[in-house]
User: What shape does this take?
Amino acid sequence: MRRLVLNFPRSGVASAIVVVLVGAALCLSAVAHGGTASSSSSGIIANGAGRTLVQGGTGGGNVGSYPAYTPVLTTLAFHAAKSGGLVTGSLDCLAVAPESTGGSFTSQSAQFTVNVMYVTGQVTAAVITGGIATLTGTATVTGLGAGTNMPFTLVVQSGGPGATAVLTVSGLTFNEVLLDGGLFQVGS
Assistant: This one.
């Protein structure tokens, strides 16, 4: 039987070990992240919480007694994890706006005291693409778009203040920007 002998100079041995260790780390990283939640790995897929601003507020049209472009702030919290091939998690989003003064379509824009919408739901699926997670599931919604077992999609960008989240539920889409109080994390 022939034996294969590899002779490395002493500095070459150290280099070879580093190459093997870096290669192993890259392989483990690829297995841990897997590209989607459909990989066999377990662990945290995405999580985060913080205060956000809905870009454009109520949008260009009147919403109830609110005039166009009334500012809306949210408190957003979410997490998704995978264990044994099953994705579980939750989503909570509380939207507040200034108190409307009624028929005159004006508001006290600096006082965010009115709960205009609350979304609470269970995450049932997740896909990771780069630093972005797409979480889906069903929710109970109160206020605007009220209903039960409403399908939702939350697309979250990894990062601190300035990171984005897009929540689609009840036929409404909210483009949110993280202001403070949290960090959105994608991947395990």
